[in-house]
Structures are given as structure tokens and as C-alpha cells.
Fold this protein.
Amino acid sequence: MAEKIIEFKNVTFSYGKQPAVDKATFSIEKGDFVGMIGPNGSGKTTVVKLMLGLLTPDSGSIRVFGKEISGFHDWQRVGYVPQKATNFDQNFPASVFEVASMGMASKAGLMKQLSKADHGAVEKALEVAGISGLRNSRIGDLSGGQQQRVFIARALVSEPDLLILDEPTVGVDQKAQHEFYLLLGELNRKRGMTLVLISHDVGVVAKNAGKIACVNAGVTMHDASSGIDSALLCAYGNDMGRVPHHHD
Amino acid sequence: MLEFLQYTFMQRAFIGGILIAMLCAVIGVFLVLRRMALIGDGLAHISFGGIAAGVFFNVYPLLSALVFSVLAALGIQKLKQMKVYSDSAIAIFFSFGLALGVVLVSLSHGFNMDLMSYLFGSILAVSENDILLILSVGLATLAALVLFYKELFYITFDEESARASGVPVESLNTMLLVLTAVAVVLSMQVVGILLVSSFIVIPASIALPLCRSFRQSILASVLIAVLSVIAGLLLAYYFDLAAGGAIVLVLVAAFAAMLVCKKLVVK
């Protein structure tokens, strides 16, 4: 059996009285490309924040790379592209290279200056993301699609084994989106990187991801090839006005 | 030409002024980008309470101001964690410091001339003790900023991602506030309590729109602050002006010039 990268067991988390995540049990294995879908307010972002240790569950256990999350410190193995990453202060004076090198913060360690090798790693990540030519541009001068690639590069800098993306293509044009998913597919297949992609776009997820995680307070996993209809049903219930049917 | 440098008081003013300018310019870039431009003003008013307490109880006033300012910085951070809005938290401490200062002044029966020099700065009159404190504390603060540059930059740009990659965001935010508190007390010597925030905010505000990278912004901000201190001190020396006021007026003029140049370039 493949190595478990993320493992949730009976995880519950509430912001107020209403649980946002309710007894979620699922696991993500090495090499998976998981698309996480669910209606607005279903708890997708909360699940991701729990995975990243940004929120602490009320009950249940979370393991990251086989370690209990409270004792996990190897965060350079996890790359994260937050929702609204491109929603930053567009006047912020930072070059593309500088933004990408933020990804070195945990790998290089507190108080350490970046070494030559670290700089090399940043250059490499910019190349993988296809934006080497923009390294000295001011981040705010780039298009939405280009900015998105800078944040991918930032997440790739520490050569993570797991990359988590929260609605990465919001505000990115169609062509850039297409290229973006090609890049993700390549990272997954060629580099064996485990990917978790949150999206409200079921079509995109079904096309690109190998597994689908339906989030609706709980989390259920489906194979993207066979389970798309049942996956939709689990996430959206009957509100979609769609009649479920099965291909046999 | 450089005859003013024969005087010990001018040497001290230049050394102290330039170091404090560098410190404030670096901190200013972080504060301006985090929309915390007025925290300097808040902490300066709190330091007024510290100065008054120092004068009243006969303690070295810079030291008591330093203690007040740092404690208030920690207090503001604590209130923020207790979900008080940060501008309200600043306002609460701001008034508290001023109120305490005024009460202590009234208790000591009348306005002490010493206090005036803290309100408007007295860089031309710093003592040897002052300059030693400025140099040691200033250099230590600058060193802390350099050591944590990478993390502070990350947090300033994107706090959540920084947290997700394991950067100790809360501790570093507290540290930045404490360093600001220290910088404020030191810059009181140069420009005085009432002018501290322009000293912190203007160099960064000039540099930010002109620079393509963060490193450039920091360097430009430092250069602008240092040149303004030099220009302000020279004006003060040759035309017998208040040094603090002269420095701030030079900064404001530089800011206006930047706006005009930018407009011309854009056209």
C-alpha cells in the first residue's frame, strides 16, 4: 500500500456551534492528484487549513507524512498556494524572484540568509513554473495568470512532496488556466508530487484529478474515472436538480 | 567647509541622527506596508508618559521611556490577541501615556523645560550617555531586523502563507512592535515625540512607489532618511533652526518632489 501523506480520523472542527467539518475520515496517498469539491461553505478551505496546521481540530486526529500533526515540523515538505493568493496589495514592492524565495523561509531556517544553493533552487522553481524571464519584474505588474505562476513557484521552491492549492485559478483567463493544469499534471506524473486541488469547478476537477474528495462537512473519496456522478450527489445533494444515473 | 564637524555636539548629532534614521527607515517600510503607519505616533505619546515618569521619579528619562514604550507595544499586541481592533488598542495606550504624562507634570508643579526637548527633539544637545545608549540599542535593533529580514518580509507580504510554512508569525509580530517601540524612543532624541511618525513613515512612503523590489525599497528608504538627516542638520546649523523640525521639513519636501517627478514621468 502506498505511503499515506495525509490521514484524517474522525476530525471535527467548529467555528461557532455549527461544525464546519464533521467527523471527517479520509486519507491521501503518495502520488495522488486529489480534486476537492463541494458547495460554498461546505468546509473545503477549513479542511485544508486543518491539514496545514493553521487550525487545530476540536476532536479527532490528523497525521501528516505519518506523524501526528502537532509534532510535525517538516513544513518545507508541504507547498501551499492559498485562496486569493493573487489578492495581495498590487503596489507591494517585491520582485518575482523575491516572492518566490519566500518559499525558502522554512527550509533555510530562522535568521539564516539564503545560500547560493537556495538561490539556485529559486531559479529552478521559476523555470519549472515557466516565468524565469520575469524574475526581476515587480509582482504587481504581472497578469493574473503570471502572478499565479509566481505563487506556484514559491510553493515549489522547497521541493515539497505535497502541494496544496486552494482555488488557484480564480481570476485567471481560460488559456492561462489550461496551461496551468498542464503544469500541475506534469508535476504529478513526472515528479510524483502529491497534489490537493480545491476547486468549485467540478468539470476541471473531473478532467484533471485522479481522485475526488467530496466535502460537505464530512469528506468522502471517489475515483475520478468512475465516481463522478456519485461524487456530485454526495457534495451537492439533490439541490442541483440533477437526476443521478449510473454507467454500468 | 566641514568646520561644523569640529564640534563634539555636531559629531554626536550626525552619528546618532544617521543611525536612528537608518533604523526608522527600515522599520518604516515594514510598518507602512502593513498599514501600521500610526503606531509610531501612538508609541511616541506613550513614551511621553515614560519621560514624565523618569523626570518625576528622577530616573534617566530615556530609560523609563524605553520601558514604557516596550511595555505598551506588548500591551497593544495582547489587546489585539484579545480581539480589540488594533487602532483602538493603539488609541487606548496613546491616551493613557499622554494622560499619565500630563498628571505627572502637574504634580511636579509646572512645565519642566526638559520636557520641551523631548517634545521637539534635541539631537544637537545629546549627552555622551545618550549617544552611548543610542549606539548600543540602535545597532542591536538594526541587527535584529537584518537577522529576521527574510521572515519579516514574508509575513509583511502574506501572513497566512508564512504561518503555513512554519514561520513563527506571532512572535515575530511582537518582536517588530518591540523594535518599533525602541526606534520610537531613540528617534524622540532626533525629532521629538510629536514628529516621530513622519520620521518613520515618510522615507518609506517616498521609496515604495519608486522601487521594483523589496530590497531596493529598504535601501532607498535608508538613503532618503540619511540624506534628509544630513540636510536637516546642516540647515539647522547654518540657519540656526530647530533640528527636528528642519529634518522633517526636508523629508516632506522630498516626498512632494517624488510626487511631482512621478507625475511628470507618468505623463
Summary: Chain A touches chain B through 36 residues (CB under 8 Å). The CA atoms of residues 4 and 43 of chain A lie 22 Å apart. The longest helix of chain A spans residues 174-191.
